[in-house]
Design brief:
Length: 231
């Protein structure tokens, strides 16, 4: 059974907010309502699939709330549709420049709102699918590894890296925060080798640190344990 999409309606016109929420629930969405940006900020905004957001509200405006969300990595990708009576071209451009996915002007029809929601959710789903297709990419800031192409780039510049070095770095970044012993790495990176000394891991780690520049400091040594990539 398909999970219901979760939508948050944020509008200080309570009757409008409740009415829209009721109709969205009738369409099969899971809906919450907030009557101010302050109420919205008390919620787990990252849990929503889409937010319908009024611009003209009390102490914190809709544009301010959108700016807060877009500056937070946890909520930056949550789609926002502005619903507002402000109808100048400048207002529309400002809203879209903040990262809003669409802009609906009041008064609006329910059918228009539903159509915009469906469009934005489809677009979001397509973006997620594309990201999954590119999931072979593992990255930390400007350090990007492609498991499919076996390439490593540092701030846009490709760095030549032998197979074993690449596999160690891929293992560490893919499991950021986890520490691996030399034995762990030897067993995974050199599984078919009869005799490989622990020192081989140390030498490869040193070379990797040198090649990835400023990101070398993220590969940490835990004395008595092993190595890990820490963000």
């Amino acid at each position: 059974m398909e999970t219901k999409k979760k939508i948050l309606v944020v509008d200080d016109e309570e009757a409008l907010c409740d009415g829209l929420g009721f109709n969205l629930e009738a369409e099969g969405y899971q809906v919450d309502m907030a009557y101010s940006a302050e109420e919205a900020l008390a919620l787990n905004l990252a849990a929503y699939d889409l937010i319908l957001l009024d611009i003209m509200m009390g102490e914190i405006s809709g544009t301010q709330l959108a700016r807060i969300m877009k500056s937070n990595p946890a909520t930056a990708s949550v789609p926002i549709i502005f619903c507002t009576a402000k109808d100048t071209e400048e207002d529309m451009i400002s809203g879209l420049d903040l990262g809003a996915d669409d802009y609906i002007m009041k008064p609006y029809s329910l059918n228009a709102v539903l159509a915009r929601i469906r469009t934005v959710l489809r677009r979001t789903a397509a973006s997620v699918a594309l990201a999954k297709a590119d999931s072979d990419l593992v990255s930390y800031k400007g350090l990007v590894l492609s498991a499919k192409n076996r390439t490593c780039t540092v701030d846009g510049t490709e760095v030549k890296m032998p197979k074993k070095e690449f596999e160690i770095l891929l293992k560490l970044i893919s499991n950021s925060g986890q520490v691996f012993t030399r034995t762990d790495l030897l067993n995974e990176i050199w599984p078919d080798e009869v005799v490989v000394l622990d020192r081989v891991v140390d030498v490869n780690i040193t070379r990797i640190r040198q090649k990835i520049g400023i990101y070398g400091k993220n590969i940490v040594t835990r004395s008595g344990y092993g190595y890990g990539f820490i963000e």
